[in-house]
Amino acid sequence: MQTDPLADFLTSIRNASRAAKSEVRVPWSRMRSDVAHILKNEGYVLEVEKVSDKEAKAGKPELRLKLRGAGKTRAITQITRISKPGRRQYVGAQEIPRVLGGMGISVISTPRGVMAGHQAKKQNLGGELLLTVY
After folding, report:
1. Helix/strand/coil (H, E, C) string of the chain?
2. 41, exposed or middle or buried, with CB in 10 Å at 0-12, 13-18, 19+?
3. Do 93 and 115 share a domain, yes or no?
4. Which listed residue, of 47, 71, 115, 131, carries a Cα 20 to 30 Å from 17's Cα?
5. Which domain holds residue 13?
6. CA-to-CA distance for 116 and 91, rounded, in angstroms?
7. 10 and 61 co-located in one domain
8. Is residue 74 part of a domain?
9. Is the pLDDT of residue 132 over 90?
10. pLDDT tens-place string over residues 94-129
11. CATH number for 33
12. How far is 104 from 95, CA to CA, in rounded Å?
């Protein structure tokens, strides 16, 4: 039983990055897909693709991510879940943290969808602080 599917997704990415894997496959969900597309738009992931039912191993749709940088030059050095099921973290538009002095990103779930922290700040939106990446 998965209590936090987003944390499992981040752990898969973290483990693949540390093991110098170029590709990760995880079960598809809309939240995972949204977060993966943000990582792609910000340059941490090269490609995001939803694998159809026929190609997937378990017969269920999967999300395939091609990670940027293999070996010692990883693009993702740290990916951390902030808001957890036991303790949700909400921030206002002015409270969105700068990650690593602007070198990393935060991902926020807003009323207008999941977006990077700097986009939410421009649109003056707050929400649930999901994760940080650098």
Report:
1. CCCCHHHHHHHHHHHHHHCCCCEEEEECCHHHHHHHHHHHHCCCEEEEEEECCCCCCCCCCEEEEEECCCCCCCCCCCEEECCECCECCEECHHHCCCCHHHCCEEEEEECCEEEEHHHHHHCCCCEEEEEEEC
2. middle
3. yes
4. 115
5. 5-67
6. 13
7. yes
8. no
9. yes
10. 999 999 999 999 999 999 999 999 999 999 999 999
11. 3.30.1370.30
12. 16
pLDDT tens per residue, range 48-95: 999 987 766 668 999 999 999 866 688 899 999 999 999 999 999 999
Are the beta carbons of 127 and 115 closer than 8 angstroms?
no
Distance (Å, rounded) from C-alpha 4 to C-alpha 85? Answer: 7
For residues 49 and 132, give the distance between their C-alpha atoms in angstroms, rounded to a whole number: 22
Here the tokens at position 18 are 């540390």
Question: What's the structural domain count of the chain?
Answer: 2
